[in-house]
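Study this one:
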Amino acid sequence: MSSNQVLVKVEQLKKHFPITQGIIIQRQVGAVRAVDDITFDIYKGETLGMVGESGCGKTTAGRTILQLYRPTEGKVIYDGVDLTTTKGETLRKMRRRMQMIFQDPYASLNPRWTISRIISEPMRVHKLNSGKARLERVKELLDLVQLNTLYLNRYPHEFSGGQRQRIGIARALASDPEFIVCDEPISALDVSIQAQVVNLLEDLQNRFGLTYLFIAHDLSMVRHICNRVAVMYLGVIVELASRDELYDNPLHPYTQALLSAVPIPDPKETRARQRIILTGDPPSPIDPPRGCRFHPRCPIVKDLCSEQVPEWREILPGHWVACHEG
């Protein structure tokens, strides 16, 4: 169960990737504004969902929070420690408490390593257990993710996608973390396997009190697993609210458009529902629009939207939105 204790505090976080020209003398001519000033909290024991179109900055945000990418600006405060100013051994010790489950179970496992070595690598890095105790811990982790312990000396190519993702989950658990970034952990899997992996993540959370940042495209799955949901568009968060509040009362026009595209199994409801079709494509993060990022595609755009960045404000208790309307 989630608590009111803030575990991760993200303040005005930015991650820009430089664009350079020249072969010998390289000079910066621009930047990809992948994450451009986001602020939110993640509470201990909760699952915060992060949704949005491909390329909106969700994965970059997750990796920057874990300091796999160093931020351009802003702060990431984990349990009272500012990770952006932490280096060396201190950061390595903090990293033991934070892990990531990657999107592609085919690319995230070293094909030359056995399953035993893959899962035990975090224990070697963080100097946890050794010898027989480490092997027993690997077997325990395989049991946790419902894989046979006889698979210890097999290689990743011998497993299906769902099994590989379970191995990735076991590796993430090896250092006994408190916080896990789940970067679209089910998007590369068959639909029949997705529910099994999500149920496994929920069971592990209940058992160990884990905190998740769950990055996903599937809005139906996000509604099932998440306590709160943040909606990203072109590097910024446009809306953040509890799951039921966001799905029942979306305030930002982009969120309304996203939710109108979620399939409903009832044909009568589907016919009665009004679809919101957005025109055009998302602008480039190299040269984002002035004012509100969404205004070139917004169905309720006003003159003010192209001139002034909307304030990030709390419209209702726990319901934050960045829009000039309302």
